[in-house]
Amino acid sequence: MLRTRRSLRHRATPALLLAPGLLLFLVVIVFSALRTFWISLHAWDGFGPMTWVGLSNYAELWGDPQFWVSLRNNVIWLAVFLLAPPMGLAIALLVNQKIRTMRLAKSLFFMPLVLSTVTVGVIFVWFYDPSYGLLALLFHAFGASPPAVLSSDTWVTFAVVFAALWPQVAFCMILFLAGLNTLDEEIIGAGRVDNARGWQMLRHIVLPQLRQVAFIALAISMIGALRSFDIIAVMTSGGPFGSSTNLAYQMYQESLFSYRFGYGAALATVLFAIMMVFIVWYLLRLLRDERSA
């Protein structure tokens, strides 16, 4: 009898510990996603009764030019944010050197991570200003006229993405610094005995041990690129003429400014489906690594 009670307690303890997190996940994530999809099948202004429209919101998305602009901008965000892991790794390798002044350099590279996104957006609005910004001073130094990148429908998305890339690189740097501090010194010592130096040491000894960290940095950068919203609101508000809008910001505009919560929910559902591709890929990769370990 006593053994049975101990066995039940042993089985119940993990379930009780997982229950709060599982309940929160079901309510905040699963229920919210299902509710959003349900709203996307209706026409709703957010206040009155919902009117069933079926897949009309999704059909309207297909013919909406702004949707395709937003989707293209999300692709640009993804492409640029792929630079964050290798840039973070390069900076981490630099500041991980045992040099006296590297502590100061490390704190300077770490600074963007502790700044709020609003602060980063304001800083880069000043940086891009064609009258007195740092970019204008650089162009004037070479005798050229500075471009108004935040007013250009061609360059505004790239300007905003590179502003958001700054703290993302700092985040990846922190991940790789943590990974560098857990490297196996015995393997590194064996590599030095075999005359592994420079690029050979990095490629054959260091990078294989950072594979998991690199995978996490890549996955988080992709998801961060897809859900970016606040820095667009600060720097451009989606302008000029919607050219810097992505799916998250268009969802915000359609829902809260146009009172089209059904259409905004359809945008949210499409964005969630795109993010699920990366989330499922991430989970499958984790399961495969655990099975092979």
TrEMBL record:
Domain of life of the native organism:
Bacteria
Q: What is this entry's stated membrane topology?
A: Multi-pass membrane protein
| Gene3D superfamilies in the record | MetI-like
User: Gene Ontology cellular component?
Assistant: plasma membrane
Which residue spans traverse the membrane?
12-34, 75-95, 107-128, 155-178, 213-241, 261-284
ABC transmembrane type-1 domain boundaries: 70-284
Identify the InterPro entries for this entry. ABC_transporter_permease, MetI-like, MetI-like_sf
Its localization reads: Cell membrane
Q: Which family does it belong to?
A: Belongs to the binding-protein-dependent transport system permease family.
**Protein name (record):** ABC transporter permease subunit
Q: Which organism does this sequence originate in?
A: Pseudooceanicola albus
